[in-house]
Recover the amino acids of this structure.
């Protein structure tokens, strides 16, 4: 082909009369009168290409195209006649115009040798087997454009506020947390474990004087549940910050950070998200509502909902939905921080409230009723931390490396973790984590 | 303390006469005449704090401080008298001025309860055990500031050029590459493997129509060597791009990307890197020199160096150094792409040169004689790919999921991988990977 730079489908508007080179996939070949029309798809949308009148060879080439072949096409941009506009109307992205291209040259650079065997009606497991084909559809493509924008906007705030990017090791010498849901690796004849979260290592960064850090990376959970909400591997967004007065400083950071992220997402993808997912992106007011757990339970009492069993004093999924609905109705806010969880449902390393040792300086963030974040101020005083671990029955030997972090001068600190796919589910009003994950991993799913 | 916002040590210049609040660590307490001087360290540098004349309680508090305790301090900025300037001269970061603070209030927020047991003279293994203390030293802190800047600058280019951020799964169903150096995970009673690279999944993204992607994430290599150059887990920077004509398009991207990164690093950290590491950051000219492997071997022949054994036709470490030295001498360039590696030392999925099937469309990038990148155009035609695999004795069954990626229309594509710590080693002229890794993992090192 020529040396023309690549033009994207979405750029055709405004280029009428100019020669362009498009690169994309054969979405369809449709007969229109006595000539075929090629509908080409690229990451930005669709383009309609017609052969030059009387070019018999080009007509034959277009008719011989198999759907989904990768092609390069050159031609001149011109306004579309009405029938072609109809043709595109269903498939088109929101900002595509009504320009077409008079095709002059076509090159198949990656021929499809088989027909695509899946459609939207195909059962989820078969679609996951052929995930690379499913990802070609515009709404799926959009998910990963949005994800890219979300992460970039997060990083803009971190960069501005002097956070350091961390890459903590995924191999751990000892089980963390309760020892359950843990993957074991054969590590040169001994056992190693895959990190379920970077918790200890992001706290180590505070003991290292890195002050404020973030990490976006994989975490691993050997959860045996096969549901549309669970996975064995996901991308965790972690933040830890020093020199705080309480967990309220951590919430203060998180809310201005999320506000910026949603501002950028709305401006960049708001229309496309509405079109493909029917979801409205709202830029939240700051501060977000903060609701003490005791007050959250008053709301549940009034609604006649009682959290029972081992979740007592906590919120169950239904409780989270009810609290969120109450906040949305009373305060008009999609977000709510539920704060000060009872100590028995939080890890031993959460700091206790100064005036009530049964409460922790902790919070969850609910968005549209879904928990997207868990955060807290950590206990940084080594004697208090050891006492809290002992009271919980945690043996001090295996966590001595962790207690060491706090024995040489460690500032007060706290942080939170946010599941990237959870966040995307709330943002796009999608209820299946497999849809917003590039390649899902679950107890019965480890391919492709 | 008061509601004053935090001031960083490096900001004191220009604040003479103003009240500030500093947060940091006790670097030292030194007697100066009849009063103690507190030297405080924060992420940006050092500050000298003297008690208000006659404030006996503050004098006693300063004298009781244990080194490395985390403290908050309030006071008024004033010019430093000469002796304090001397005191700071050795330790200070390059841009610290000669301002001090008259201390009015001091709060110990994280007391050190033990003395720091390591110094620069401590053997490496003990220092790695106490890595969080070693990281407090300014040059180590600088490494992670530079890393943060490097990644951010990389992302600026990706963002500008419409790359999508990918998070590919680290659990793999089958061994990749040769099956050697592979970590095995107990995955619900079956075996899974940890990804040694995102190779297959970044190519899948090309088959998915994501067009251009990047990923920064961990990769895992069960290499049993214990050296200062090897690790079992490191951060890999991966790029893959579609619609290329050849591997030269990939090199074209990489060189303008690295030029931007080094421009930003030089502007942001050039002085500090010179001061702490004695390394000069040079912004490279583009294009980088490109040297066909056959010509690289002519240079080695002329230098009397012969690459023997299984590396024949390849470059060994000494060969890389000699080629890089030649290019630096003849062309004045720190970088050189060595291109068109023989097919027998490249994986089966590298595309062969159209005019010479014994050569691949591949390259390595050497920087100061160290290989920092391996890249190539990939073979995207499924029949050619299968034939190349078979010729290499690779059974087609286990890679059929991979061959599928190319059967439904896949554009020509290529990419590269860059080791983040390798890059930092070249940038900072450091020869021990453990120094530039947050927490090193090796065959005998999995703690803390």
């Amino acid at each position: 082909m020529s040396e023309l730079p690549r033009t994207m489908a979405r750029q055709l508007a405004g280029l009428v009369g100019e020669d362009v080179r498009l690169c994309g996939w054969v979405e369809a070949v449709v007969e229109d009168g006595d000539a075929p029309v090629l509908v080409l798809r690229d990451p930005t949308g669709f383009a309609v290409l017609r052969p030059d009148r009387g070019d018999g060879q080009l007509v034959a080439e277009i008719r011989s195209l198999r759907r989904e072949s990768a092609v390069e096409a050159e031609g001149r941009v011109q306004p579309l006649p009405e029938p072609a506009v109809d043709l595109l109307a269903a498939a088109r992205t929101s900002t595509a115009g009504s320009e077409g291209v008079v095709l002059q040259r076509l090159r198949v650079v990656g021929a499809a040798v088989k027909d695509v065997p899946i459609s939207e009606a195909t059962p989820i497991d078969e679609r996951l087997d052929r995930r690379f084909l499913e990802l070609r559809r515009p709404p799926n493509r959009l998910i990963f454009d949005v994800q890219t924008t979300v992460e970039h906007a997060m990083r803009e705030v971190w960069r501005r506020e002097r956070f350091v990017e961390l890459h903590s090791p995924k191999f751990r010498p000892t089980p963390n947390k309760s020892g359950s849901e843990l993957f074991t690796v054969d590590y040169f004849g001994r056992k190693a474990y895959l990190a379920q979260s970077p918790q200890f290592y992001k706290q180590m960064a505070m003991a290292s004087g890195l002050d404020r850090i973030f990490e976006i990376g994989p975490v691993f959970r050997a959860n045996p549940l096969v549901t549309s909400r669970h996975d064995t591997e996901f991308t965790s967004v972690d933040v830890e910050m020093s020199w705080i007065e309480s967990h309220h400083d951590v919430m203060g950071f998180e809310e201005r950070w999320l506000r910026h992220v949603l501002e950028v997402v709305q401006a960049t993808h708001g229309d496309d998200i509405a079109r493909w997912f029917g979801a409205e992106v709202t830029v939240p007011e700051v501060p977000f509502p903060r609701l003490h757990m005791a007050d959250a339970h008053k709301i549940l009492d009034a609604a006649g909902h009682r959290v029972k069993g081992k979740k007592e004093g906590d919120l169950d999924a239904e409780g989270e939905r009810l609290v969120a609905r109450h906040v949305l109705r009373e305060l008009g806010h999609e977000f709510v921080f539920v704060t000060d969880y009872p100590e028995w449902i939080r890890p031993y390393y959460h700091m206790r409230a100064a005036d009530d040792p049964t409460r922790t300086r902790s919070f969850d963030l609910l968005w549209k009723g879904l928990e997207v974040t868990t955060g807290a101020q950590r206990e940084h005083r080594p004697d208090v931390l050891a006492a809290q671990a002992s009271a919980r029955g945690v043996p001090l030997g295996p966590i001595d490396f962790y207690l060491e972090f706090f024995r040489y001068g460690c500032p007060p600190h706290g942080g939170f973790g946010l599941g990237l796919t959870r966040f995307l589910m709330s943002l796009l009003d999608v209820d299946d984590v497999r849809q917003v994950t590039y390649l899902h991993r679950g107890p019965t799913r480890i391919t492709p």
